[in-house]
Amino acid sequence: MKIVVIGGAGFIASHVVDHYLAEGHEVVVVDNLSTGKRENLYPDARFYELDIVEQRDRLEEVLREEQPEVINIHAAQKSVPKSVEDPLLDLKINVEGLINVLEICKKVDVKKVIFASSGGALAGGFCPSGD
Fold it and tell me: What does the pLDDT look like over 18-31, one tens digit per residue?
């Protein structure tokens, strides 16, 4: 099966990629490397460096070309303090980016989407007032 892992250069997603490869799947990674690391990438997975918000058209081209059966989404702005500091950036990456991927999946007939989310629990709670 061909699987695209969006955000696949991140810590958790790179382990997901490793597992998919070990299971014999064909894996494609899409990541803008804003927080993911090139050293997390596996040479057996094809890699596209692109941003799911700013390069929507390029993402659509990649997904049309690759024709994956599954999309596994791990791309996110996950820092709670950063989301409090700049909520519009958080909204743009986490909501607009997700909507871009989902709309493109409909267009190119992706059969299954897996969305990984921590619900903001990765860094624990954060209170801007310091309480």
Answer: 999 999 999 999 99
Q: CB 44: neighbour CB atoms within 10 A?
A: 12
For the cut 90, the answer to whether the pLDDT of residue 81 exceeds it is no
Using the structure block, give the residue that is written with the tokens 């996950």. 78
Which position has the token pair 């890699």?
47
What is residue 70's three-state secondary structure? strand
Residue ranges of alpha helices (H) inside 10-55 are: 11-22
Query: Terminal CA-to-CA distance of the chain, rounded, Å?
Result: 49
Question: Is the CB of residue 56 less than 8 Å from the CB of residue 98?
Answer: no
How does pLDDT run across 33-46, given as a tens digit for each residue? Answer: 999 999 999 999 99
Residue 30: other Cβ atoms inside 10 A: 27
Q: CB under 8 Å to 66, separation ≥6 — which residues?
A: 2, 4, 28, 46
Q: Is 22 exposed, middle or buried (0-12, 13-18, 19+ CB in 10 A)?
A: exposed
